[in-house]
What does this fold into?
Amino acid sequence: MPITKTLASLTDNLEFAAYRPRILIVDDQVINIQALNQIFARDHEVFMATSGQSALDFCRKTPPDLILLDVIMPGMDGLEVCTQLKQEELTADIPVLFVTAQNDANEESRALMAGGMDFISKPVNPDVVRARVHTHVTLKLQRDLLKQLVFTDPLTGLANRRNFDQAIDKEWRHCQRNGKSLAVLMIDIDCFKQYNDTYGHLQGDTCLQAVAACLQAGFRRPHDIVARYGGEEFICLMPECELQSAISKAASVLRTITDQAIPHSSTKVSDSNIVTLSIGVAATVPGDQLSIAELIAKADQKLYEAKQAGRNRVGA
Ligand SMILES: [Mg+2]
It folds into this structure.
């Protein structure tokens, strides 16, 4: 299915799935918040903040789908709130609609320069504000979906390789700054070609999904990332992790998979008739010896050694 078609059907589904977009209303006057709340309460999950600082705190914890932001507030004004939101990765993409009693072009241009998507005058006209919010929420949800499609492997739901490449770049720099070790696990399903030949490619897909789910469940630290790297190959990134801990984790992943006992009658792994994995592990403190590419190549080499040594084992 072409990606545009997929997106359209997904957004249709979103609308019909009765998803309630999360809107944050920010205004120092409670009466203004109440007026907007009346307009949106039925179809949206509405949150409220009466100061710039509390709006920022809320967005950093639980980013909403859209913000209706008063410009004039004591302390931190709306422009400052918007500027700060746009500077932070987690909140930069939240659409901000300014709501203001002022009606001059200078003010409007300052609001748009600060990163606002739109500008709505007080007193608000319910139909106008509803229509504008609908437009911007729809665009935001479409962007979210697109991002999800671009960074996710469709078969397994894991991160894809593009996602992994970005993540390792970021975590590499983080570990470099902090002098911490970072580990990479290269993971391969043993004799997967034979599996497909025996059971067919559809069953092969089911097997990939089962392994992916096990891996996803196995790496639970907040910054760990498991990605599908290629056909039956997965890669896992463990920031702030020493080689020895990564090896123990790899061993426990091997056990989790054999516990699943997924039948594999044509495997060449001796004394086995179930699906097994081989895992290569490598770790380094960024900046010391290896580049990112060399670290991944090393994990790949260790995986190769594990295969040569009989599969269903960890190489390190
Ligand atoms: Mg105000």
Residues 126-151 form the longest helix (26 residues).
